[in-house]
Amino acid sequence: MRIGTGSTKSNGPSTWSRHSLKYYMSNNIVVGILKKICLSILIILGLYWVIITIRTEVLVDDRGYTLDSVSRDTGSDVDSDGDKGKGYGIMSPCRPVGLSDDPLPITALSSSPGSGNTWTRFLIQQLTGIATGSVYKASWMKQAGYPGEGLTNGSVVVVKTHMLPYKKFQFDKAVLILRNVKSAMIAEQKRRHYWSFNRGSREMFKDEDWERFTMIYGDDWLNHNTEWIQISEPLYIVLYDNLMNDLKSELRKLAQYLGFTADESLLDCIHNHKNSLKKKKNMTELYPFNKETELRLDGYLEEICQALQTRYNDFDCTPLYAF
Ligand SMILES: *[C@@H]1O[C@H](CO)[C@@H](O)[C@H](O)[C@H]1NC(C)=O
Ligand SMILES: *[C@@H]1O[C@H](CO)[C@@H](O)[C@H](O)[C@H]1NC(C)=O
Fold first, then answer.
1. Which ligand is closest in space to the CA of residue 130?
2. How far, in Å, from the CA of 62 to the mean position of ligand 1?
3. SS3 of residue 306 by DSSP
């Protein structure tokens, strides 16, 4: 009796749960619930995407190009890059890219965020066939066509940095990409909002965050570029607008500075594959700067132009002023 009751009590629940588990499994109820959860998550993500897409305006500059289509550039000194390497199509359209067998001089590829650093890395990789490195380690960049991501040694042709020249890393030489502070700031703000509800909407240029950002970014831009222009030796300047407007001759000069020569067919190929330049409909104008900010930023452009002309006598600042 006692044994019987005991065995019933101890067997009962376990038999029940064993059977019921089998029952649930065999009827795919557990699997069904999991599927429903997954489906719900997908639907929520999908709705979010739809809302963001509907809210997205096509923000273009006065040349009819989307403002950051060429340079979805990267973060700050605590970088983890926001650029997913999208929009560049196949990352090696003209030649394969690999680490250098012979050690190269360690060359900085310096810029303020939003100045086209990632795009320039793509161009340099195609120009030289050598991978570009970075003082940051954005691991997915390796898969996105930048096999030298995270390297800062002689195996890479240039090393991306948004840091000041005397910070932490030593370079033998440097390339500084200079882009108009307003255009770069807009590109960077759009990158910062890549995952935000305001992505692609002009709301991201209206709130307090934008006001604060114009202050912080502007000062950083001035500081970063002043330091590199004054301190770095030797230094080569790439003006973003020159790259945009006269890619082949800019790449020819850049190749020479990096110790490479580029033949015409290669330059033609790269030119034909600067495919991140997508022309969009000219729907809206965007100039999200009030008078006060404009004056301040124009002053910064003036200061950088003076620093450039102090260092290089007859430096033409016109492309830097172009917005
Ligand atoms: C875009 O539109 C603005 C005015 O709405 C105009 O000034 C500008 O020239 C246009 N740009 C292009 C490339 O059509
Ligand atoms: C650079 O670092 C990578 C990874 O640690 C290494 O494989 C490579 O040999 C290094 N190159 C040089 C020139 O030291």
1. 2
2. 5
3. helix
The answer to whether the CB of 282 is under 6 A from ligand 1 is yes
Please tell me the residue having the least CA distance from ligand 2 atom 4: 151
Question: 183 and 130 in contact (C-beta within 8 Å)?
Answer: no
Which residue type does 212 have? R
Q: What is the pLDDT of residues 65-95, one digit of tens each?
A: 343 333 333 333 223 333 334 334 467 889 9
User: What's the 117 CA to ligand 2 centre distance in angstroms?
Assistant: 22
Question: How far is C-alpha 186 from the chain's CA centre?
Answer: 13
Ligand showing the shortest atom-to-Cα distance for residue 61: 1
Q: Tens of pLDDT along 96-130?
A: 999 999 999 999 999 999 999 998 999 999 999 99
Q: 208 vs 307, which has greater pLDDT? A: 307
Distance CA 271, CA 106 (A): 26
Nearest CA among 297, 101, 286 for reference residue 180: 297
Topology, domain 107-321? Rossmann fold (3.40.50)
Q: Decide: helix, strand or coil at residue 18.
A: helix
- 298/289 Cα distance (integer angstroms): 11
Q: Can you name the residues that pair with 106 across neighbouring β-strands?
A: none
Q: Are 126 and 248 in contact (CB under 8 A)?
A: no
Give the residue ranges of DSSP H helices in the chain. 2-26, 29-55, 117-128, 139-143, 181-192, 208-231, 240-245, 247-258, 264-272, 291-311, 318-321
**Which ligand neighbours the alpha carbon of 281 most closely?**
1
Would you kindly state where each structural domain of the chain is located, as residue ranges?
2-55, 107-321
Mutate to test the pocket of ligand 2, among 106, 149, 155 (most ligand atoms within 8 A of CB): 155
Bridge partner list, 215: none
